[in-house]
């Protein structure tokens, strides 16, 4: 993929079946579909369109996910969060490790921004790389400013 390229996806992208784990379904026969719209070069992040028909199910998050509801609605809750209805225009964040209860009354369509959480052991290296990148990106001191010192 070329650097500095904007990846554009249409709203009417073709979705493919993405069955919910049968052990997670609590009620109904929800049918889910998705399409991956983009993926980062390091494969730790992606953007997905996802939709689902009526049903109740638990969703076990093995990555951080931010959702923006595009159409329909869903009521979500967790062990630590009371039920909240999300409708078109609403945004919610589900951190890695969350088990969320989803209740889709009729239909929901969302765009999801997903990010795999890196191991804590990698954080010092990531911070050092960001610091080094900051040094490289700083503008070089001009000759005039050096002469003033």
Task: Characterise this structure.
The chain has 149 residues and is mainly β. The protein has a domain at 16-118: Sandwich (Jelly Rolls). It has helices spanning 123-137, 143-148, and strands at 16-17, 25-27, 32-39, 45-60, 64-78, 81-87, 91-94, 99-115. Strands 1, 2, 3, 4, 5, 6, 7 and 8 form an eight-stranded antiparallel β-sheet that branches. It is globular. The model is unreliable at 142-147 (pLDDT under 50).
Task: Compile the SSE list and pairings.
Blueprint: E1 16-17, E2 25-27, E3 32-39, E4 45-60, E5 64-78, E6 81-87, E7 91-94, E8 99-115, H1 123-137, H2 143-148
Antiparallel strand pairs: 1-3, 2-4, 3-4, 4-8, 5-6, 5-7, 5-8
Describe the structure in brief.
The chain has 149 residues and is mainly β.
Radius of gyration: 21 Å
Structural class: mainly beta
Number of strands: 8
Main beta sheet: strand number and arrangement?
8 strands, antiparallel
* N to C succession of SSEs: EEEEEEEEHH
Note poorly predicted spans.
Answer: 142-147
Look at the structure and give the CATH class of the domain at 16-118: Mainly Beta
Residue share in helix: 10-25%
CATH topology of the domain at 16-118: Jelly Rolls
CATH superfamily heading of the domain at 16-118: Jelly Rolls
First-to-last CA distance: 44 Å
CATH architecture tag of the domain at 16-118:
Sandwich
- Provide the residue-averaged pLDDT: 86
Morphology call? globular
What's the total helix number? 2
Portion in strands: over 45%
């Amino acid at each position: 993929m070329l650097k500095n390229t904007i990846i554009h996806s249409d709203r009417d992208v073709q979705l493919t079946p993405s069955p919910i784990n049968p052990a997670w379904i609590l009620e109904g026969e929800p049918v889910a579909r998705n399409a991956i719209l983009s993926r980062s070069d390091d494969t730790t992040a992606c953007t997905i369109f996802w939709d689902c028909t009526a049903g109740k199910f638990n969703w076990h998050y093995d990555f951080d996910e931010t959702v923006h509801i595009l159409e329909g609605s869903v009521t979500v809750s967790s062990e630590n969060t009371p039920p909240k209805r999300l409708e078109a225009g609403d945004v919610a964040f589900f951190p890695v490790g969350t088990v969320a209860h989803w209740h889709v009354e009729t239909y929901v369509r969302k765009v999801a921004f997903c990010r795999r959480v890196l191991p804590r052991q990698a954080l010092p290296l990531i911070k050092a790389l960001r610091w080094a990148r900051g040094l490289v990106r700083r503008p070089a001191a001009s000759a005039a400013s050096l002469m003033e010192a």
